[in-house]
Write a structure and sequence with these properties.
The complex is a heterodimer of chains A (352) and B (304).
Chain A lengths: L5 E4 L3 H23 L2 H27 L7 H16 L4 H14 L1 H8 L4 H21 L9 E2 L8 H28 L1 H11 L1 H6 L4 H27 L1 E2 L1 H4 L3 H13 L6 H16 L4 H17 L3 H10 L9 E4 L8 H14 L1
Antiparallel strand pairs in A: 1-4, 2-3
Helix pairs in contact in A: 2-7, 2-10, 2-12, 2-13, 3-4, 3-6, 3-10, 4-10, 5-10, 7-10, 8-10, 12-13, 12-14, 12-15, 15-16
Chain B lengths: L1 H30 L6 H19 L3 H29 L3 H22 L17 E3 L5 E3 H23 L1 H11 L1 H6 L4 H26 L7 H15 L4 H21 L3 H22 L2 H6 L5 H4 L2
Antiparallel strand pairs in B: 1-2
Helix pairs in contact in B: 1-5, 1-8, 1-9, 1-10, 2-3, 2-4, 2-8, 2-9, 3-4, 3-8, 5-6, 6-8, 9-10, 9-11, 10-11
The chains are: A mainly alpha (352), B mainly alpha (304).
Chain lengths: 352, 304
């Protein structure tokens, strides 16, 4: 590298170290149910579902610039399909998997229509579609309107076993989507989708296949949210259309992605952890808690649109899981990456 | 005969939808912003009216007259504190910020007023249930006709204002191209502030009529936003007359749907909206000349 005036790098020493730490954490999480009690296992399962939702919403809004107010549709459909298939005689865990897959697939036909809409139109159209899905599910006699239905097939399993399976299934699903996003965002696709977000016409003019890229991310997000819905049902046990198709899920996703940092890989995870802790602490206060979430979402979008992690990343140039590239001017002499900090600051100023 | 009745009632209901939609239409037309808290502003407005009525016992119409300038002020503040900031940072931020705002308004109203479903119908006396008899099967309520008339008057008024006043012309110029408007001396920030003030003020009118002909609670806002948006899209974005047509189409779809089945009211409305949206998208997406000549299309259109 010596002699070159600059170098383009991905991994820094810090991010290599942190990647090792991440692997260690994942390994620890995998054996956790064997050590800790049912309570912690169940709480963590909830956290993992939040992380899946936050990462999916960030994939849409943060990377693709698609603000969806209707992802609760896939969340609800995932749970509904699980109930439907389970009552149809399928093994309950198979029903969760197949249900989530089927629900995710509904995004494909929808996408060719929805993705032609822009900005606010897309946002409200997703909302309308989610409302329609909610109304249609109400028609199913099995669900009995808003009364709902329980996933009684799960009773066949011992509570402890059930909890452990839910935990591992949720952990595995979360890792699957995290790895998928990590790989995708490091590939050409990652650059393409962010180019579309920044300027769709300019992206198309340099040969990005706009519709295909948007469709891929929309469908992945649908699969993620549907899986989250099925997994949520495995813990909550009861399916009530109003709870699963509620707009509050969008509020949660928006809060997590926005506070953590839209358009960063680590941000939504940070946001989900913050949300999880806040809910644990203040969830009981009900209304004021929701007011707080709304205020935070508004303030963050106006004052700190890059979120907590995005702001840290801009200021200090840290990345635990590097999905972008770093330009280091005089790379050989300045391994500390001082210049990249300067560049980051300059970029941040451009953005504001 | 029952279908004629549904169409008459649907048309009148469409007046309400036009009323709630015109502010959204104006704001979208001028600033290219969709205010996701639009419906919640309507509900906030009606709570102001309700508070005035229940505290002082004045007529809801007088209370509305007092609430309108208040809501206009709120619209101005909204522009000043939220939209002006968010417009600079791309199209995503206004959506995020107004969604957050919607949650705040809904839950603050809930905290302040509880979950009770309220109505202003008891406060307007006979107007709530008086009706004219058209035939032995078809009755039209005085209130429904009043709402429709107010919607038409408001739309005519807005249209005249946009067409013939200096400020109206400035608003249209800014909607067309804000940068060029600035070049000829128009202060686009002031134009935006006025538009936001008008838009939010109209929500108070719509909300009050909603409360007179039906009921409201702190969480009624999102449904109103959806209806308003559907009316705007069905009628064609950026046209005030289109908004009236859109409202009427939505109203008819809903009342015909209600006749078909108990949940048909909402479902048919949503489906008509999606059909119109789909028709608009696919018809405008077709490159007719290219289709006739059977030549490959340009890169933009073929990227699927």
């Amino acid at each position: 590298m010596t002699g070159k005036p600059f170098a383009v790098t991905r991994w820094t020493r810090a991010s290599t170290v942190s990647a090792v730490v991440v692997v260690a954490i994942v390994a620890a999480l995998a054996v956790l149910p064997a050590i800790f009690g049912a309570n912690i296992t169940e709480r963590l399962t909830t956290l993992f579902v939040y992380i899946i939702l936050a990462v999916m919403w960030n994939a849409l809004a943060g990377y693709a610039g698609l603000v969806s107010v209707g992802e609760q549709m896939f969340f609800g459909l995932g749970a509904y399909a699980t109930i439907r298939l389970s009552y149809g005689g399928m093994n309950v865990y198979a029903a969760m998997l197949v249900g989530a897959l089927l629900s995710g697939f509904t995004a494909l036909p929808l996408s060719s229509f929805m993705l032609r809409l822009r900005g606010g139109e897309f946002a409200i159209a997703t909302w309308v579609i989610a409302t329609i899905a909610h109304l249609l599910v109400n028609f199913d006699p099995l669900i009995e309107g808003e009364t709902g239905k329980s996933l009684i097939a799960l009773n066949a399993y011992d509570a402890g076993v059930r909890q452990a399976i839910s935990y591992w299934a949720t952990l595995a699903t979360m890792l699957l989507f995290l790895v998928l996003m990590f790989v995708l965002m490091r590939s050409r696709f990652g650059a393409a989708i962010q180019a579309i977000r920044d300027d769709e016409q300019a992206a198309a003019s340099v040969g990005v296949r706009v519709m295909a890229a948007k469709r891929l991310i929309f469908t992945i997000a649908a699969f993620g949210c549907a899986a989250a819905g099925a997994l949520w049902l495995a813990t909550a046990l009861t399916f009530q259309p109003r709870t699963y198709f509620g707009i509050q899920w969008t509020a949660y996703m928006l809060f997590m992605a926005l506070v953590g940092g839209l358009g960063t890989f680590e941000g939504p995870i940070v946001g989900a952890v913050i949300f999880f802790v806040l809910e644990d602490r203040f969830g009981a206060t009900g209304v004021w808690y929701l007011v707080g979430l709304g205020v935070a979402a508004t303030l963050f979008s106006l004052l700190l649109p890059r979120g907590l992690w995005g702001t840290l990343e801009d200021r200090y140039g840290i990345q635990i899981m590097p999905v972008g590239y770093r330009l280091r001017v005089g790379a050989a002499k300045e391994p500390g990456g001082k210049t990249s900090q300067g560049a980051a600051r300059w970029l941040a100023r451009l953005r504001s | 005969m029952i279908w004629v009745d549904q169409i008459v009632q649907g048309t009148l209901l469409g007046g309400y939808y036009a009323l709630i939609a015109c502010g959204l239409s104006l704001m979208f037309g001028v600033m290219r912003i969709i205010n996701l808290a639009h419906g919640d502003f309507a509900i906030l407005g009606v709570f102001v009216v309700w508070l005035l009525v229940s505290q002082t016992g004045i007529s809801p119409f007088l209370a509305l007259a007092a609430a309108i300038p208040l809501m206009a002020l709120l619209g101005w503040a909204l522009q000043h504190w939220i939209f002006e900031r968010s417009l600079r940072s791309g199209p995503l931020v206004p959506l995020l910020a107004t969604f957050g705002l919607a949650i705040v308004i809904e839950n603050l109203l809930f905290e302040g007023f509880g979950a009770d479903t309220r109505s202003l119908a008891p406060d307007i006396g006979d107007l709530a249930f008086d009706s004219w008899t058209l035939t032995d099967r078809i009755y039209v309520g005085h209130l429904a006709v009043l709402v429709f008339a107010v919607a038409v008057l408001l739309l005519v008024g807005l249209q005249l204002f946009l067409k013939h006043t200096v400020l109206g012309r400035a608003i249209r110029a800014t909607a067309e191209d804000p940068d060029t408007a600035e070049l000829v001396g128009i202060n686009s920030r002031a134009v935006y502030a006025v538009s936001a003030a008008i838009a939010v003020a109209t929500t108070a009118v719509a909300g009050t009529f909603l409360a007179m002909r039906a009921s409201f609670d702190p969480y009624s806002g999102p449904a109103q936003l959806i209806f308003a948006f559907e009316a705007v899209v069905i009628g064609g974005v950026g046209s005030l007359w289109g908004t009236l047509v859109g409202g009427i189409v939505l109203g008819i779809a809903q009342s015909v749907g209600a006749q078909i089945g108990p949940r048909g009211f909402l479902l048919t409305g949503h489906i008509v909206f999606l059909l119109v949206l789909a028709a608009r998208l696919f018809l405008s997406g077709v490159n007719w000349r290219a289709a006739i000549r059977r030549r490959p299309q340009g890169t933009e259109g073929s990227a699927t």
